[in-house]
Amino acid sequence: MKQLKSLSVPHHKNTAYMPARRMDVPAFVNIPMSMNIGPPSKPVVSAGKTVKVGQLIAEAGGYVGAPIHSSVSGKVKKIGTTVNSMGQYVPLITIETDGLQEPYEGLAPPDVHDFKSFIQAVADCGAVGLGGASFPTMVKLNIKSLDQCEVIIVNAAECEPYNTSDTSTLFERGDEVFEGILLLKKYMQAKQIIIAIEDINTRNIESFKERIRTSGVSGVELRILPSTYPQGAEKVLIYNTTGRIVMEGKLPIDAGAIVINCTTLAVIAHYIRTGMPLVEKTVTVDGSAVKEPANIIAPIGTALRDLYNACGGFKEEPKKVLYGGPMMGIAVPDLDQPVLKSTNATLAFNEKDARIPEQTACIRCGKCIDVCPFNLMPVELYNACENRNCDMLRKLKVNLCMECGCCAYVCPAKRELVESNKLGKALVRADDAKKKAAVEEAAARAAAKAEAEQAEGESTGKEPSGTEKNSSAGGRILFLPRRKDKKRR
Ligand code: SF4
Ligand code: SF4
Questions:
Q1: 435 is in which domain, residue-wise?
Q2: For the segment 276-309, what is each residue's pLDDT rounded down to a tens digit?
Q3: Whose atoms come closest to the Cα of 364: which ligand?
Q4: Which of 38, 104, 142, 324 is close enough to 64 for a disulfide, judged by CB 3.0 to 4.6 Å?
């Protein structure tokens, strides 16, 4: 099948197939209330309350939200706020752990027997897109009609260099991933389920081939894809596996497809079987500054510092620490930042690897255009952004940029093309908001003027201007408001 443009990048999958290690329970966890796209979750516990693993501590903040459960047993120390890695203030629950990791007594497998109860279970377990998107899974699966969904793609294409947390889940919890696939087949009535996996993932390819064969289930297939970047990006994966195109402003379901991350599926299956919601993550800890790279199973809310300590600490002073991989990861301001639901890797780099190359003048080589999977023109977007030209940014479709970083990776002048596109999107958003506010203000002014004229007309007995039935304005009827106090003849 035809593939979108992509890059061959060094994989650095140093931790692939290393057995994931469960770390010691940290002294504290800091659980942010903003771990999904949508409004923050609302705490339902207060300081001093004793909590256990899996107990609800915050309910969803709205439809596009997700509940949060305690990842540890212990005592709620405080409900406060923190500044996250994006510089935003977010509410936070701090729990002092007791080290016992006692499960909450109220946990029980949910009664799942049809689509509605399945969707309720997906909502209750707190699942969000664990590949990094953080979109509440319930919202993604809760489609209007089951006929809409023609294909479900299980995203097992972990294309970011270094990251191996999905690889680890597929290998160690492969039965749960497959259980999740069978749940999708049963309750979403998916006609076709494609497990999309990269060709370097040989051991998982073999084990899933075997699972499909022995299960005897029909309509589930393994699609082996080239190990290129950004193979795992949602729209790229849909095109590369099915040839379907998600049009601008549309959702994958509008193209008849749903993409779900393999670890998210394992979480849903685990909850439906045991009643234990999403409380921990397998996180790849790697990078040139790390002593013993590993996949660590950590309670959500664990400080990155504790994760690195679980890997023997640093062999060199880290000059840059990331949430996520080197292509799309975000630099964190300090090691107190917690493991989030969507954290699948944290990387720490030494001075040499953290060095930001000097930006030089664009040489108009066009490499950034050649590599963009969506055929955007990064160099032109950069210029439009520099000139604060919002109309040009719209014309060049800055909104379609998925910030994959391919353009910046190949640019010989090391232009900050991704940062520029992020800024470009923010400029367009601000410009849209300004235009909307201006339209609303003009409408409000016109309404106020009409009201004032009507009030004046009522006090003087004259018709308000512009309300005459036979206007002289070229025979056009300008404005015929219904008079409340007079019957129309
Ligand atoms: S970051 Fe945006 S512009 Fe650059 S290659 Fe990716 S999608 Fe294209
Ligand atoms: S790759 Fe870099 S140097 Fe080449 S055209 Fe694009 S921005 Fe300019």
A1: 358-457
A2: 999 999 999 999 999 999 999 999 999 999 999 9
A3: 2
A4: 38
